[in-house]
Amino acid sequence: MDDTRHQLAIQALARYWQAHPQAADTVEGMRAWWIPEVAISTDALAELLAWLESRRVVVASTAVDGRVRYALADPARTTATGALIPAEGPHVDDSASLSRPEEM
C-alpha cells in the first residue's frame, strides 16, 4: 500500500475516533463500517493497526470470542490535532517497530 492510502486510513480512523472516542472494533468491522471510503485491504489495515499499537496509539484486546478488537489507548488524545499520527509517520521502519512492506 502506498503512503497516501496509509495516511487516508489514519485520517479516516482519527475522524471516527474523534466522533466516538470509546469505540472499539475488529479489523473487519473497521474496514466495513468505520472507513468504507478508504480502499485498503483487511491485511493492510491489520498491519497499520499493529503499527499504531506498537507506538501505543491503539490497544488490542482479545474478546471471549477470540477476535481481536482495537481501541484508542488514550481516548483523551482525540482532541489533539493529529493524535493518531506519530511524528515519524507510518513509513518509518525502526528496529523496534513493525516494518512496513511496500505492498501494504
Task: Considering the chains and any ligands shown, give keywords for the structure.
3 helices; 104 residues; 3 strands; disordered C terminus; alpha+beta
Protein model, in words:
- Residues 81-104 are annotated as: Disordered.
- Residues 90-104 have a biased composition (Basic and acidic residues).
- This protein is α+β, with helices and mostly antiparallel strands and 104 residues long.
- It has a single domain (3-79), classed as Winged helix-like DNA-binding domain superfamily/Winged helix DNA-binding domain (Arc Repressor Mutant, subunit A, Orthogonal Bundle).
- Helices cover 37% and strands 12% of the residues.
- The chain contains three helices and three strands, in the order H-E-H-H-E-E.
- It has helices at residues 3-19, 27-34, 42-54, and strands spanning 24-25, 58-62, 68-72.
- A three-stranded antiparallel sheet has the order 1-3-2.
- A hairpin with a 5-residue loop joins strand 2 (58-62) and strand 3.
- It is globular and about 35 Å long.
- The chain starts with a helix and ends in a 32-residue tail after the last strand.
- The model is unreliable at 91-104 (pLDDT under 50).
Shape annotation: globular
**Beta strand count:** 3
What is the annotated CATH architecture?
Answer: Orthogonal Bundle
Order of helices and strands: HEHHEE
Structural class: alpha+beta
Strand content: 5-15%
Name given to the CATH homologous superfamily = Winged helix-like DNA-binding domain superfamily/Winged helix DNA-binding domain
User: Main sheet: which strands, in order across?
Assistant: 1-3-2
Main β sheet profile: 3 strands, antiparallel
Report helical residue fraction: 25-40%
Number of domain modules:
1
Low-pLDDT sequence parts: 91-104
Biased composition (Basic and acidic residues): 90-104
Region (Disordered): 81-104
